[in-house]
What we know:
alpha+beta, Jelly Rolls, 5 helices, 35% helix
Amino acid sequence: MDDRLKHLRGIPLFAELDDQGLERVAAIATDAEFPAGTVLIERGHPGLGMFVILDGTLRADVRDRDAKLGPGEFVGELSLLVEDIPRTVRVRAETPVRVLAINRADFLALLESQPRIAMAMLRVVATRLAQMLDLPQ
Length: 137
């Protein structure tokens, strides 16, 4: 297995995928780098995809609190799951970051062949919702 697939397997969202699934992720994901201070997601703007953090730290401004996100975590997932929903948070690079960018159409096709990703994503989305609503976890 090449280094890129090993790296993808280390990301919790993709950890349960077989080699074929990881190869599909590698084929649809685009590597991108952003300097510190760059806004990757702006609240209220349309969402077209998600970012999986490879290196660095993102800060998500969620209502009246901030959340730091690091390697292995992802942002922008609602735009993959719900078409035409505006972004609900502002996300900026706190440090220089390297991410995988995945657009909605490619991700939906991936979900059809690799439904395990949906279960991994659902756990994170539910936890984030509980945090926003101040529910005990």
